[in-house]
Amino acid sequence: MITCHTPDVKILKLTQNNVVVYWDTIQTATKYEYAIQNAPTPVPTVGTPVYTPSLQFPLSPGKDYYVFVRAYCNSIYPQSEWGMVGFSTFPTAINTISGASIGLSAYPNPVTNNVTVELAGKIDGEANITITDVTGKLISSVSVNNNKTEIDMSRLASGIYQLKYSDRSHVDVMKITKQ
């Protein structure tokens, strides 16, 4: 019996202002439907049709988000259950002395092994990235020499970590989830 499988929604890239979500293609799907909201309940009754297995959304800092996706299929089961991924953006803290952000992003998020940290702005002087756990304990500190840095998180326990970038003019913070 061919079923209409529920999409396994995942985060590819998450920043304070943007997210890219994706899911594996459902073999029998003819289209998908998505909804984004700020709470996990109630589950949506209707969404927006989409024909590709990825989406990008603008976000606001300091909010919770839940992206729901379901498949519509050519089978005896016309639609799947909703698949969902939830995440939070960090509130905008001290971005820079001038108020402009360095454009910090990290992916994949959630991370299994290595996380890539990218900066959209210009590094000002000595720069580093620190990773702390939810208690504030320093886990790692890495010097930053260019706008793209890879950090090994493979030995860390699963959980939520804070990634903080700082240089002479910038301080940006975001959440990283380790699987």
Major beta-sheet overview: 4 strands, antiparallel
Q: Which class of the largest domain in CATH terms?
A: Mainly Beta
Helix content: under 10%
Name the CATH architecture of the largest domain. Answer: Sandwich
Tell me the fraction of residues in β-strands, as a range: over 45%
CATH-assigned homologous superfamily of the largest domain: Immunoglobulins
Briefly note the CATH topology name of the largest domain.
Immunoglobulin-like
**Order of strands, widest sheet:** 4-3-6-7
Structural class estimated from helices and strands? mainly beta
- The tally of helices reads 0
Number of domains: 2
What pattern of helices and strands is seen along the backbone? EEEEEEEEEEEEEE
Mean pLDDT level: 86
- Uncertain runs: 93-98
Radius of gyration: 18 Å
Distance between the termini: 33 Å
- What is the 3D form? elongated
**How many beta-strand runs?**
14
